Amino acid sequence: MNTKRQKSMGRLRRHPNVILHTLRTLPALERAIADFHGRRETIALVPTMGALHDGHLSLVRIAKRRADRVIVSIFVNPTQFAANEDLGTYPRTFAADLEALRKLNIDLVWAPAVTTMYPSGFATQIVPGGPAKAGLEDTFRPHFFAGVATVVAKLLIQCEPDIAMFGEKDYQQLKVVTQLACDLGLRTRIVGAPTVREKDGLALSSRNAYLSPGEREAAPALYRVLRECAGAIAAGKPSAGALRQGREAIVDAGFVLDYLEARNAETLAPLESIKGEPIRLLVAARIGTTRLIDNVAV
Ligand code: PAF
Question: Would you say residue 215 has pLDDT above 50?
């Protein structure tokens, strides 16, 4: 990023009477980006799959404070879903999404068709390593990070943002895209933002819409257990014992547990018990047919 662009980061430039433009073709996007560059405006990208909730909107608000222009991409990316997953039923609320973005004075939504992102003959895949092979989400969704890495790389190349916002809720994904941007030498800085939670602690997620009332009532147990484990480990309890108890508590709350792990917060590698090593606790568990993930720092 050049110095002039860097200087204007962090400054909120007001655009009165902003009109929300929904762009669906690459030439239209290219023209808009060229316009922003021509005016030396900085760009923040917030990649989403739509079904926007307050977690997404908080990313948008942070993006607005950090760049002159905010592009929100809405694209339900088929390549990150396995055949047995919820691509067909993934919530699609496009009109409500646009309304929410309009209220935030966002000026550009990038909403390409599947055939624009993956035209016939498309044959390239980015298969990430490092944090993408940490043995967490990748164990249970082996297809997932190649789909995410490929689409995120495309979005970053298409939108040429100075920064791109990702929620810490998808902590492994945040690490994967950070590594990807670094390894591919992309000019975009990846910015992580804190998880937004319901009052009872449940992390906001588009998939919370799938929960029945009973499941919704049980769901905050994930965050409660994460915090209890984090507190115990911070107080000096060996992580193996804290995690064993945590796993039992999650199952007792009605979940089928995929994993509850303590990892190095930077690399996601298993802990080496080095004093002062930054620790992140990560969990994935299923309740009914809904799979939830969450994480906290220790
Ligand atoms: O976190 C998401 O919503 C998606 O994985 C992302 C980053 C938009 C890529 O499709």
Answer: yes
